[in-house]
Write a structure and sequence with these properties.
about 350 residues; alpha/beta; Quinone Oxidoreductase, Chain A, domain 1; Rossmann fold; about 30% helix; about 25% strand
Amino acid sequence: MRGVVMYAPGDVRVEDREDPKIIEPTDAIIRITATCICGSDLWPYRGVEPVDHNPMGHEYIGIVEETGDDVKNVKVGDFVVGSFVISDNTCEICQAGFQSKCVHAEFVSQTIGTQAERARIPHADGTLVVTPGQPDEDLVPALLAASDVLGTGWFAADAAQVGPGKTVAVVGDGAVGLMAVLAARELGAERIIAMSRHPERQKLARHYGATDIVEERGEDGVAKIKELTGGLGAHSVVEAVGTQESFMQAVGATRGGGHLGYVGVNYDVKIPGIELFFAGIHTLGGPAPVRRYLPDLIQLIWDRKIDPGKIFDLTLPLEQAAAGYRAMDERRATKVLLTL
Amino acid sequence: MRGVVMYAPGDVRVEDREDPKIIEPTDAIIRITATCICGSDLWPYRGVEPVDHNPMGHEYIGIVEETGDDVKNVKVGDFVVGSFVISDNTCEICQAGFQSKCVHAEFVSQTIGTQAERARIPHADGTLVVTPGQPDEDLVPALLAASDVLGTGWFAADAAQVGPGKTVAVVGDGAVGLMAVLAARELGAERIIAMSRHPERQKLARHYGATDIVEERGEDGVAKIKELTGGLGAHSVVEAVGTQESFMQAVGATRGGGHLGYVGVNYDVKIPGIELFFAGIHTLGGPAPVRRYLPDLIQLIWDRKIDPGKIFDLTLPLEQAAAGYRAMDERRATKVLLTL
């Protein structure tokens, strides 16, 4: 089969990879019908994270082609959306809603690699969610978004305890930040402040529910959030960039006793303990337990109540994945969908 | 009046200080009947935090001697317990339960200084809590403990979401850690693991409710907690030391999706963002909003349902404060009560 392999930072190739096979009785093989490039794929692309001939991609939707003997919840022909982290969905951690920390957790990225024609999904029963039927073509981008970027943005908003009457600040106008804006609206936030200085993304943020835009960053950004919130800071802050500056901007924008949800930090971030301490805030972060949210998100998409698919602003065939990486790296595209 | 002044690290003196006076109409002057030395007083004592001729002390109980014109909730002659952070208890942040981040928050330590015969307490209505009557002598240590060390330990346990059915690990066997053990028992924890290698403190931890003792530290400590919790880690972890090693030990001991409550970090702590991220845990820390818990804690003490006063293992007259600092610095005492 054809699949994306990142040889080294900046060096993305589409080449023949071995077809996946059932290894464990809990595996399923799916034929991928759409996949995409994630902001986090840019970390190895930019050399911030190690990479060496790794298969790439961890967002995927597709059709089940084969199942292991122990697979019960999905069957051949089912259309499925999967999380970017493998989970059994039965262990104590999964049952508590933290499937991304499942005792059988395994990252799909850089090992399985779903920027490819097929993929072996371990713990298929716990990882994949079957859609109500074969989706209409126009729902494909939205369902694909649920696999990570929507689920991650939703988790970030939930981790920040977004809810009615709350003011939310979203640091980051990338795909995850924009999805957090969408989630904040759905979760009933009163005011949603998107921190963005990119006109197109500001427009999309407004489309998804942002009530205010703040262009300032760092300490100026914090000061602006304070100004907009009677000096207190936001009840809920989502951090969706992952740099030292953006993380501390998010900490500073959160009111005492408020909640910060963060969904990615790079390897260089060192949080000064004393600053976090004196901020006096709740934090929750980590790889999002997308599996927790998938059934509800799929239903919202199926019922056309949310339109996360708009987040894709460039669509390319899998064979042109390298061009997709370049477009995202150069910020010419927010998120690239790869067709098969 | 007589009061403690720390001239420089290691240099603690008791000398004549000016008597406090009402400045704002919301102030009260209290005659302090007992005060104590806090683990955090050792930070400047050890040169980890700056100090330069600062009045010391932030834990206090006493009798109201004078009130400003706007003070309504406390009156002359009332016996009161106060928080170590000034709060109005009416602002939005206070109403949300985070009085230590009050819009009028001010630290009692190193400015007001309650290791003294008297103190001016700003925002007396919001900071002080009147006891049900004049306390019996045997309740004095317990009421004094409520002012910080009990309130802080309680907050730490609450921040770690301790509750029935939960396994709690407490990192640190100092006074706050031991009070967190007491709080964990009161909050109904199923299993309370105290991390301590000090025989006397282990004994006190058992007295307060610890069901298990772990002597290992750092990675070995984490491994031991994992071993005791089926490989998952504790649901709730309290960090009550504040060093780099202890903080990361606490992060590592918390299960995915679990809760870490931390109540002090020193200036050198730098939390690797990526480790916190992949831990996938909730955190809540900061100066404890003791004021939130004071009414309940005072009642528990008054009804003799808890005995936090046992935490004081050395009692000295105020004039011998320097000897008290030395005893705590050298770990010959867990916590020193100063009588007046």
